[in-house]
């Protein structure tokens, strides 16, 4: 489905961005860096106490720049190939081409590698020398690095982080092996082509780093190190793709968003991989004072996660397991504030304790706790994975969240309802408000889900859960027929970002089409045009629900102001400020297509879909939708919808899939390899 001949998944430029923050990133679930940056990061390795905790900076041996001094008539290109997860730099002359290729291995997550290849393109016999500039120094402001003995030709350093997140807490140890990089490499006169490969391994134990390095060396010896990485990416794309017959910039944006998000998830088939969450700027960013210091927010659970869940529920489970492992920290947070149960931190790192540098957010932006539980709900209704809840800690978390919401509510005799007071809604321009519509709605949803899970597992449902869910206040203006953002909100007050519009999606809070429209029209003109990137995607989803396709497209078009060239890195704000490689904005944009254009909705009993997309899109293909352990492919045009089961679960009763037309009730059984 091409728009011209340009590959929408390959981003090429003759120059690099002037702002180094906008360089392409090469990342896997464990290691990440920006191209030409002198540091890399390890997932889950932080240094600093509480509000000062940040991703530990590790010196990067792969920060190498290729040059050919005094060369005439060289052309230069820089390419990010999202299909293979590879960045390349090419110097081309009439006589030769020199290629520098860099990647973070997708399946062997402890490895990063780069190669230099020189190939003659003319019949010359002159030696060709390429210089390699490497500012690498094995020192870190966050680790007490020590030199160890060389291993299989590699240098070796190791060291602990300097300051634990909490007093007496763990200080992770990082071990790194890397091949020394010469100042230059030369293609001799009799050689036509030659490659040099350079390997780096990073792990949290000596045993693992040596095992990984040895595995990488073995693949290098067979000439298949990069091929194995590219194969892992090919398998990833095979199971997950959104493509459309439409404008090239939109297709490029989709591939870019998927690449950066998929770079962050655990490799397939490696159950038990200890995953430490996804921060707004990804693993390539998050040093002290940068991109929210690598902390994990609601950005993960609300904005990125739904896309991951629909394609790769195993990776979605790993995100939930991170929240389960940090439950003790959440229990501590609630107790510290005088409440029962678990309060998840606004900013989370290794322990689940609140690590936000500014107290107001950790104290008031409590909707995060409901956002976390909504991710568990979506997972449960998409997979029916009861083991996560009954054996792997999920139920304990659900129970603790329900306890928290009940203890956080106050009964009002005057209004005969429960209030949640003194909060900051998603709209961070307002604080210490009472009855934030979004916060109260997500609390209600948490309690309803907790009760439903209890019933499924034949656990008695506390009456308090039912009562609080039923009687929590939902601000509503009966005259204007819209939801005020909080008690006392005046129409026209500026709003930072998507807030009340989230009631319709993703919360799916019950309301009429008239109220949904009124909410959109009330908040769209007063939302800050320079606010965070994910906002306009949610307005687009709302208008698509109402079949107002052009109004939706106006909102979608605003997102392109946050996409930078040439590598499609997103900035948090349209003026270029805020976090970069802003996965939150990318997640929102993907949802606008994956849940907006298709109309997908995850409910307790079904995966609903109701497509609607603009005139300049003729066909939409979504490959790899996962539902009840089956894989589905949707092909949607304005005339028809085709559904094909590409992988079938033989695990009854999950295997009994059928498509149902809601208006007529007509049912169509779905079987593997057969379409509808």
From TrEMBL:
Residues 284-490 form the Glycoside hydrolase family 65 central catalytic domain. InterPro entries: 6-hairpin_glycosidase_sf, 6hp_glycosidase-like_sf, Glyco_hydro_65_M. Keywords: Glycosidase, Hydrolase. Its EC number is 3.2.1.107. Belongs to the glycosyl hydrolase 65 family. Catalyzes the hydrolysis of glucose from the disaccharide unit linked to hydroxylysine residues of collagen and collagen-like proteins. This is Protein-glucosylgalactosylhydroxylysine glucosidase. It comes from Halcyon senegalensis.
């Amino acid at each position: 489905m091409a728009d011209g001949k340009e590959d929408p998944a390959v981003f090429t430029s003759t120059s690099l961005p002037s702002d180094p923050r906008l360089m392409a990133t090469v990342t896997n679930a464990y290691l990440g860096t920006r191209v030409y940056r002198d540091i890399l990061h390890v997932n889950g390795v932080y240094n600093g106490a509480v509000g000062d905790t940040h991703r530990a900076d590790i010196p990067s041996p792969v920060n190498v720049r290729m040059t050919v001094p005094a060369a005439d008539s060289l052309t230069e290109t820089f390419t990010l190939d999202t299909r293979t997860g590879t960045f390349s730099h090419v110097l081309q002359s009439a006589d030769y081409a020199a290629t520098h290729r860099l990647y973070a291995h997708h399946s062997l997550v402890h490895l990063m590698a780069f190669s230099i290849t020189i190939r003659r393109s003319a019949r010359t016999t002159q030696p060709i020398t390429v210089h390699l500039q490497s500012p690498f120094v094995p020192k870190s402001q966050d680790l007490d690095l020590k030199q160890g003995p060389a291993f299989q030709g590699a240098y070796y350093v190791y060291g602990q982080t300097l300051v634990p997140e909490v007093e007496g807490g763990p200080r992770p140890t990082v071990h790194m092996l890397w091949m020394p990089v010469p100042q230059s490499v030369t293609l001799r006169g009799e050689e036509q082509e030659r490659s040099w490969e350079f390997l780096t391994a990073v792990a949290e134990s000596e045993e693992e780093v040596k095992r990984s390095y040895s595995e990488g060396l073995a693949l290098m010896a067979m000439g298949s190190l990069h091929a194995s990485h590219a194969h892992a990416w090919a398998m990833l794309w095979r199971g997950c793709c959104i493509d459309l017959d439409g404008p090239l910039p939109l297709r490029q944006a989709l591939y870019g968003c998927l690449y950066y998000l998929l770079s962050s998830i655990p490799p397939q088939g490696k159950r038990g991989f200890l995953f430490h969450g996804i921060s707004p700027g990804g693993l390539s960013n998050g040093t002290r004072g940068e991109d929210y210091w690598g902390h994990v927010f609601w950005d993960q659970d609300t904005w990125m996660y739904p896309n991951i869940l629909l394609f790769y529920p195993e990776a979605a489970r790993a995100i939930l397991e991170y929240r389960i492992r940090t439950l003790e920290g959440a229990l501590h947070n609630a107790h510290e504030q005088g409440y029962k149960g678990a309060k998840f931190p606004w900013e989370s790192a290794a322990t689940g304790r609140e690590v936000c540098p500014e107290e107001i957010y950790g104290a008031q932006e409590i909707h995060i706790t409901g956002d976390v539980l909504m991710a568990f709900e979506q997972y449960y209704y998409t997979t029916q994975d009861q083991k996560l809840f009954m054996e792997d800690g999920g139920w304990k978390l659900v129970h603790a969240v329900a306890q928290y919401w009940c203890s956080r509510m106050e009964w009002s005799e005057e209004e005969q309802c429960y209030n949640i007071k003194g909060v900051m809604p998603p709209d961070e321009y307002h604080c210490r408000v009472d009855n934030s519509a979004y916060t109260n709605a997500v609390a209600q949803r948490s309690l309803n889900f907790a009760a439903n899970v209890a019933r499924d597992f034949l656990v008695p449902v506390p009456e308090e859960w039912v009562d609080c869910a039923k009687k929590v206040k939902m601000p509503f203006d009966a005259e204007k027929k819209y939801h005020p953002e909080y008690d006392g909100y005046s129409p026209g007050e500026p709003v930072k970002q998507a807030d009340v519009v989230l009631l319709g999606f993703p919360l799916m809070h019950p309301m009429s089409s008239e109220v949904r429209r009124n909410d959109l029209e009330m908040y769209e003109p007063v939302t800050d045009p320079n606010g965070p990137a994910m906002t306009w995607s949610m307005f687009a989803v709302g208008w698509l629900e109402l079949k107002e396709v052009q109004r939706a497209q106006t909102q979608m078009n605003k997102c392109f102001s946050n996409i930078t060239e040439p590598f499609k890195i997103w900035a948090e704000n349209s003026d270029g400020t805020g976090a970069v490689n802003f996965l939150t904005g990318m997640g929102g944009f993907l949802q606008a297509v994956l849940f907006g254009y298709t109309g997908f909705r995850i409910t307790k009993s079904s995966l609903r879909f109701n497509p609607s997309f603009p005139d300049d899109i003729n066909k939409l293909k979504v490959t790899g939708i996962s539902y009840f352990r089956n894989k589905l492919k949707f092909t949607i045009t304005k005339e028809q919808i085709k559904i094909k089961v590409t992988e079938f679960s033989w695990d009854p009763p999950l295997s009994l899939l059928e498509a149902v037309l809601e208006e007529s009730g007509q049912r169509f059984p779905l079987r593997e390899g057969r379409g509808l």
